[in-house]
Amino acid sequence: MTRDEKRALIERYLRGADELEATVAGLEKEAYDFVPPVEGAWTIRAQVAHMLDADIIGWARIRKAVAQPDSAVDLWDQEAWASRLDYSRADISRTLRHQRLVRESLADFLESIVDEDWSVLAMNHPERGRKDLAATVAMYADHTGFHLKLIERNAKAFRER
Are 129 and 17 in contact (CB under 8 A)? Predict the structure, then answer.
């Protein structure tokens, strides 16, 4: 992966914070806690809280991949986290600020190692196997888009109720 490709990936990852904030910004506050009639659906508030937790876990996994290449990482049960950490109480604006800080911190770190060979820096995921640094950063960048679609689905269902 070239230096420019790494920088583009870092930027895409970082842009996820802007996209999440923009998607949530135009919503009515009542929409945050609306549950659409979809099996297992989370509220928008829970989606945002989950994104912060996922990014914190990603921050640690990526740094571990650099500090201890090819180390195993733990699985996390997102349903347990949502329930036990009571995502229904998350403050949306504070959570978005924290998520941005986590992403900015990781982007700064990734920029500091942009000239290293990212293919030798990897984590070993119990279900997904070995993921080099580029694949891991891409996974977290893509995670934002996945949840943006769910947030937009919820917002649409809220408006149409």
Answer: no
